[in-house]
Specification:
The chain has 106 residues and is mainly alpha-helical. The chain has three helices and no strands. Helix 1 packs parallel to helix 3 and helix 2 packs antiparallel against helix 3. The longest helix has 29 residues. The N and C termini lie far apart (70 Å).
């Protein structure tokens, strides 16, 4: 039986919380983009579907590799979180600097 320290659990909780906060920001920007209130690139709706599949696959593979290597429960969870967190961070960065819409001619 493997034990983990409170520091490991705290670190995992903080990383998970940050990823979840970024995910909510992404959802908000994409929803505003669908409503025409936020500038998003063409193909954003298709992209959000395909990237989820890739991140889920990478997450599963990372967790499996960590388990096979005999890592602790927190290390397995952190390995599984890493690909998803990388994708959410990239999405927040990309969506926050979305292309500007041209002003309407009036």
């Amino acid at each position: 039986m493997m034990f983990f320290s409170p520091a490991e659990m705290l670190r995992l909780s903080i990383r998970t919380g940050l990823m979840l906060t970024e995910a909510q920001m992404i959802i908000a920007m994409r929803m505003m983009g669908m409503a025409g209130l936020w500038s998003v690139r063409p193909g954003e709706n298709r992209r959000m579907m395909t990237e989820k599949l890739v991140a889920a696959q990478q997450s599963g593979m990372a967790a499996s590799s960590a388990m096979m290597a005999g890592k602790s429960a927190t290390e397995v969870a952190e390995a599984a979180l890493a690909p998803v967190a990388r994708q959410t961070r990239a999405n927040v960065t990309r969506l926050a600097r979305a292309p500007r819409r041209k002003p309407a001619k009036g």
